[in-house]
Design brief:
By secondary structure, the protein is an alpha+beta fold. The protein has one domain: Gcn5-related N-acetyltransferase (GNAT) (Aminopeptidase), CATH 3.40.630. Helix content is 21%, strand content 45%. It has four helices and nine strands. It has helices at 14-18, 62-69, 115-129, 144-152; strands at residues 5-8, 24-37, 40-56, 74-80, 83-91, 98-106, 134-140, 156-161, 171-177. The longest helix has 15 residues, at 115-129. The protein is globular, with a radius of gyration of 16 Å. The model has no long low-confidence stretch (mean pLDDT 92).
């Protein structure tokens, strides 16, 4: 893992963070299947390999992100070589004693180097120090890299919300109890 510094976001970071390419490529999607019988509803997700990689746009517009950051409980920034290369934003007002990761982005040129994991671990420490007992991470159903990272860090699937994002994509939620 590269030497990364994690610190709270500063006003000077905002333009750099908003300029990060939040899109990603995916070969997989968690497909939702809904069955309805008399008196019961069944929902399951299964990982489906797509016939070709798709480019997935981030569900929030950069200008909206800047507005939303001011409403977040915290925005932590990953610094590599003196420059911001990623961030994680957290809210505490969604569920009691729970820190909620709403956004996590890393610059494409430094992805898959442990920066997102370092940001997640720093966010867990931040949440624990604020007496949160649980952390939830939200992500799009096509964000296989984020799903795999969350599972690698011990997070478990704990729910979903269809039509959650402005682009009508499904949000998957992965949670973990904090120590």
């Amino acid at each position: 893992m590269p030497e990364i510094e994690i610190r709270p976001a500063q006003p000077a970071d905002i333009a750099t963070l908003a300029a990060i390419d939040h899109s990603y490529k995916s070969n997989y999607v968690w497909q939702m299947n809904l069955t309805m019988d008399d008196g019961s509803v069944g929902i399951n997700f299964r990982e489906i390999r797509l016939p070709r990689a798709v480019n997935v746009d981030y569900p929030r517009l950069p200008r909206k992100l800047i507005e939303e950051w001011t409403m977040r409980s915290a925005v932590l920034v990953g610094i590599l070589g003196g420059a911001p290369v990623g961030y994680i934003s957290l809210s505490e007002n969604i569920a009691p004693t729970t820190a909620w990761v709403t956004d996590l982005a890393v610059s494409p040129e430094v992805r898959r180097k442990g920066i997102a994991s370092a940001l997640m671990i720093a966010a867990q420490e931040w949440a624990s120090h604020r007496n949160n007992r649980r952390m939830i991470v939200e992500m799009q159903s096509k964000n296989q890299a984020a799903i795999r990272m969350a599972k690698k860090l011990g997070y478990e699937f704990c729910g979903y919300n269809d039509h959650y994002y402005a682009n009508q994509d499904i949000a998957l939620f992965f949670g973990q109890f904090l120590r």
